[in-house]
């Protein structure tokens, strides 16, 4: 029926369930309360030794049982918790979901405690020979199965009863948004009535910290951890590594209405554009990010005046925040001086593979609750970035449309447009 189709004749995609876990807590309620209060979840690292490290802070999720069991185990628990909350809210069967699963997760490696266990269990020959001897004798190869890229999605598919081959994807810091985009496109193509999109990342390990430090990407303002992430501020010096997860139940509007589900928002448009300029830096003219924003607006059927609020990628790195301002001011012109834009990363840090999904969840809550979360730590404005960043305190506002940006390393740019009601 026409009322269930968008401006291009495709099925309108609704959101009927949301789940969130971050360093601020488990579940939407705790996260939203902390986020709108301007509370930070960033703290000193206690999970592994930090001596001689330039960065000693992170937004780790240390309150879950698997937080000390390695990146793969923690990523699975994060995804499972957010997925279960989202499905429960949707009113669908948590053991027989019946639609496809799209999971954004980090390319996890064999955790160090597993490596050491393998090394200790070998007896003869070189270290390599001992490792292979142990590996060949493992009855089920559990250690290696849990470090395979698709293992987390496979377990989730069994847990929730999703349909078809579960898709695991990694598009760097845009991964969570890409998982949502794939779910939207599957519904639009008529392949399914519903999809489960999850972004999860529990990979705040010592190795990850060192790697990002070598790229000069992390903040080194360790003395007051909750003040380190300061998007769009003049004294920003890098992002803060973090963990978390978010899940969305996506459903055709016609299906949601037919079964009497509560519609939490609409996934109105998606846009993406690659950037081949540099492994970590953005193209100086910002054209790929500009292209992604414009593609999302066009897909949503909206013009430059159609966005009420921007949920920024806002990592707090000197390069990203400057590029994001360039791209938004190019697309929206003078209007960006007064359109509110804020960065959740000022409070929860950068959750990498999960970031796009978490920020989409918070964007939907912004529209439903009529409250814009702040950008905290905005005490030293950058005169080169003229934006209304909703500084330091939440703002009550009626928001009907949101643009959520995800600009990842390696030139992965994905933007989502969400609406309270079909536009």
TrEMBL record:
Q: Which NCBIfam families match?
A: PRK06501.1
Keywords, A to Z?
A: Transferase
Q: Which InterPro entries match?
A: Beta-ketoacyl_synthase, Ketoacyl_synth_AS, Ketoacyl_synth_C, Ketoacyl_synth_N, PKS_Beta-ketoAc_synthase_dom, Thiolase-like
CDD domains the record matches: KAS_I_II (cd00834)
* Family membership noted in the UniProt record: Belongs to the thiolase-like superfamily. Beta-ketoacyl-ACP synthases family.
What's a BP term from Gene Ontology annotated to this protein? fatty acid biosynthetic process
Which protein is depicted? 3-oxoacyl-[acyl-carrier-protein] synthase II
**Which pathway does it serve?**
Lipid metabolism; fatty acid biosynthesis
A Pfam family it matches: Ketoacyl-synt_C
The Ketosynthase family 3 (KS3) domain covers: 10-420
Q: Does the keyword Transferase apply?
A: yes
Q: Offer an example of a GO molecular function term for this protein.
A: 3-oxoacyl-[acyl-carrier-protein] synthase activity
Q: Which GO terms describe its cellular component?
A: cytosol
UniProt KW Transcription keyword: no
Read off the lineage from the record. Bacteria, Pseudomonadati, Pseudomonadota, Alphaproteobacteria, Hyphomicrobiales
């Amino acid at each position: 029926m026409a009322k269930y189709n968008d401006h291009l004749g495709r099925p309108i995609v609704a959101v009927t369930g949301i789940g969130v876990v971050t360093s601020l807590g488990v579940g939407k309620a705790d996260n939203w309360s902390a986020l709108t209060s301007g509370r930070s979840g960033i703290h000193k690292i206690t999970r592994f030794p930090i001596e001689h490290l330039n960065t000693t802070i992170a937004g780790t999720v240390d309150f879950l049982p698997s937080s000390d069991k390695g990146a793969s185990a923690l990523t699975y628990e994060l995804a499972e918790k957010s997925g279960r909350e989202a499905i429960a809210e949707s009113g669908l069967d948590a053991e027989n979901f019946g639609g496809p699963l799209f999971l954004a997760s980090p390319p996890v490696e064999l955790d160090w405690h597993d490596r050491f266990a393998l090394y200790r269990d070998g007896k003869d020959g070189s270290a390599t020979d001992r490792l292979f001897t142990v590996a060949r004798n493992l009855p089920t190869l559990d250690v290696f199965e849990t470090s395979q890229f698709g293992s987390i999605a496979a377990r989730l598919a069994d847990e929730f009863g999703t349909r078809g081959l579960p898709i695991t994807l990694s598009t760097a810091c845009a991964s969570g948004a890409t998982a949502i985009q794939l779910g939207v496109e599957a519904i639009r193509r008529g392949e399914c009535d519903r999809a489960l999109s999850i972004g999860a990342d529990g990979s705040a390990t010592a190795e990850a910290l060192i790697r990002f430090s070598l790229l000069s990407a992390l903040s080194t303002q360790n003395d007051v951890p909750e003040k380190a992430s300061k998007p769009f501020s003049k004294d920003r010096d890098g992002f803060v590594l973090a963990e978390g997860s978010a899940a969305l139940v996506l459903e055709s509007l016609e299906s949601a209405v037919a079964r009497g589900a509560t519609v939490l928002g609409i996934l109105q448009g998606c846009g993406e554009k690659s950037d081949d300029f540099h492994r970590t830096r953005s193209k100086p003219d910002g054209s790929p990010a500009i292209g992604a924003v414009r593609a999302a607006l066009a897909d949503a059927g909206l013009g430059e005046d159609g966005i009420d609020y921007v949920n920024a990628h806002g990592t707090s790195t000197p390069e990203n925040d400057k590029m994001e301002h360039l791209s938004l001011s190019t697309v929206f012109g003078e209007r960006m001086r007064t359109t509110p834009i804020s960065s959740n990363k000022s409070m929860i840090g950068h959750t990498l593979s999960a970031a796009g999904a978490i920020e989409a969840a918070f964007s939907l809550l912004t529209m439903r609750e009529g409250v814009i979360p702040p950008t905290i730590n905005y005490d030293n404005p950058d005169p080169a970035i003229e934006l209304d960043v909703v500084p330091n305190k939440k703002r009550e506002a009626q928001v009907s449309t949101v643009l959520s940006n995800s600009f990842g390393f390696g030139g992965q740019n994905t933007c989502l447009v969400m609406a309270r009601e079909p536009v």
